[in-house]
Amino acid sequence: MKRAFRIILLIPVLHLLSVIAVNAQQSQKLPFGPGETLSYEGKINKIIRGIAVADLTFTIEATGKENQISLKTDAKSKGTLLKLFRFSFLQQYESIVEQNSFRILKTVKTDVQKDRVRNSEAIFDYTENKVTFTEVNPKEPMRAPRTIASEIRPDTQDLVSGVYFLRTLPLAVGKVFMINVSDSGLIYQVPVRVTGRETQKTVLGKVQCFKIEPEIFGNNRLIEQKGSMIIWITDDERRIPIRSKIKTELGKLDVKLKSASFGAN
């Protein structure tokens, strides 16, 4: 079941991904800012159709430091998942990014799966061009941390900042962007294709969306199993991820936006 919940967090690439755009214009105004909160519900079709298994919330906050913002993600299991599979999980991310360049600086993560708990931190050093990932088990404080270091590029993102960076790209049908993802100290590259425009019925009403297909499944990918993912992002100024559908060996996941608030941004 562990793979399923890693996928849930990736969905809105979800739970959703990190994207690089070599030709992206970072000088333009970001389509989001402090005060924005997006909440999602994930349902799985396996034994029973449409079982609600997870809630996800994405929040942007100011850090108090100039030119930095905090991107927070909270993904947690719902009661149905616990009853059917006797499994619970909680994943919390905080990504600190430079607002102007949208460069990831630090990732802090708490990962709880039943009785298993792991805390981790990834520090991105652009002088040395490397990311250093450190993970500890708070239940075993005397155990040595697990540490992984990898070479990075200046446009590297983590899983959470990548979801937001995707919203800054010049999306258009037929375009392909390459993904540079840092996850647990390892680096992955994934093509992201814009394959169409479709109308989606959402809590915001009927909206035109870009249909995006990131290749995160397969050998040497983020998820090493057969599967596919589709993300729909609104074709408007805010570029909101409103839905994602994921097919996996464990079943089909459907994640939809439940609510959105934007504060003063």
Can you offer a commentary on this structure?
The protein is mainly beta. The protein has one domain. The chain has three helices and 15 strands. It has helices at residues 2-9, 79-85, 159-168; strands at residues 37-45, 51-62, 68-77, 89-98, 104-113, 116-125, 130-136, 146-151, 157-158, 176-183, 186-202, 205-214, 227-234, 241-248, 251-261. It has a 15-stranded mixed β-sheet. Strand 6 (116-125) and strand 7 form a beta hairpin. The N and C termini lie far apart (38 Å).
Any descriptors?
265 residues, mainly beta, 15-stranded mixed beta sheet, 3 helices, globular, disordered N terminus
Count of alpha/pi helices: 3
How much of the sequence lies in strands comes to over 45%
> What is the total tally of β strands?
15
Instruction: Please state the structural category.
Output: mainly beta
What's the main sheet like? 15 strands, mixed
Distance between the termini: 38 Å
Total domain units: 1
User: From N to C, what is the helix and strand string?
Assistant: HEEEHEEEEEEHEEEEEE
* Mean pLDDT rating: 83
Overall helicity:
under 10%
Low-confidence stretches: 1-27, 81-87
The rough form would be described as: globular
How do the strands line up in the largest sheet? 8-7-6-5-4-3-2-1-15-14-13-12-11-10-9
| Rg estimate, integer Å | 18 Å
